[in-house]
Amino acid sequence: MTRLVAIDIGGTHARFALAQIAPDNAIALEDVQTLHSHDFPSLESAWNEFAARVGGALPPAAAIAVAATVNADEIRLTNNPWVIRRSELKQALGVGRVTLVNDFAAVAHAVARLDERDFQYLAGPDKAIGSEGTISVLGPGTGLGVAHLWRGEGGTYRVQATEGGHIDFAPLDAIEDAILAKLRTKYSRVSAERVASGPAIVDIYETLADLEGRRVAKSDDVTIWSQGMSGNDDLAAVAIDRFCLSLGSIAGDIALAQGGFSGVVIAGGLGYRLRDVLPKSGFAERFCAKGRFAPLMASIPVRLVIHPQPGLLGAAAAFAFEHL
């Protein structure tokens, strides 16, 4: 039995758990804790807080998923002020073995291991995602994470991290033209992440208000999501519908670019929060709206991860892939 600390660091939260990897490679998670990243100056201080919460010495191994590219020694998270230096991790955390992986690469590792019951139907044929071929994995949160999973014969697989959330945003109608125009006043380049992430709802909401000639008070993304999901603000609800349309378009673009024809998987905290909204929205229609390739897109099973901690599970799976 291999014991380690699994960590999933996003733009807003840092999730920790004690993980056990059995000789048959089965993974169990215990003592899951969620910390607010901005409450701690560094990963090391959050690690110490987790140790205090679980009340004892931590295992001498760690698997860390981070919302950033992990190719350099110094890693600066895209939407989080922490700086992680790979060469200093073992000493800083007091561990002998460490795996460092992009957060959506970790989710892709989880997708490779999840059972069919860990997925919810979103679009496409009512069948399981493919046991072979390429599966695109993406999801909105503080940013927009993207990776892909390739499955081969006999359960073999490979994961590729990407920065697909930073592809250019491509509007499809006049409303999205207006959203793009508004975003261009704020950013020199408008990426997909600016439209399909949690904070993006503010610009979508304000654009819709401008188009309708409505005066609305300045509001933060948490409030707009809450008001829209509860139905207490009709404009916020329309903004969420528009968000789902854009997410569907982007998911389809990612599948075309990666060749994710064996399946597309939506993950991330915000994706899970929208589990009752996405199937009723225009997500599926937009996913398939790719002109000559519409029949191909309609043949792709699209699923939502409903496992409670895919990032932590995937981080531990990435550790097993690298070390065991």
Structural commentary:
With 324 residues, the protein is of the alpha/beta class. It has 2 domains: 2-114 and 307-323, ATPase, nucleotide binding domain (Nucleotidyltransferase, domain 5, 2-Layer Sandwich); 164-305, Hexokinase, domain 1 (3-Layer(aba) Sandwich), CATH 3.40.367. Helices cover 35% and strands 24% of the residues. It is built from 11 helices and 13 strands. The protein has helices at 43-54, 89-93, 103-113, 174-184, 201-211, 221-230, 234-258, 269-273, 283-288, 294-298, 310-323, and strands spanning 2-9, 13-21, 27-36, 61-66, 74-76, 83-85, 97-102, 119-123, 133-140, 144-151, 157-161, 263-266, 302-305. Helix 4 crosses helix 5 (201-211) and helix 5 (201-211) packs across helix 7. It starts with a strand and ends with a helix. The mean pLDDT is 95.
Largest sheet: 6 strands, mixed
In angstroms, what separates the terminal alpha carbons?
Answer: 11 Å
Count up the helices. Answer: 11
Q: Which sequence of SSEs, written as H and E, runs from N to C? A: EEEHEEEHEHEEEEHHHHEHHHEH
Shape: globular
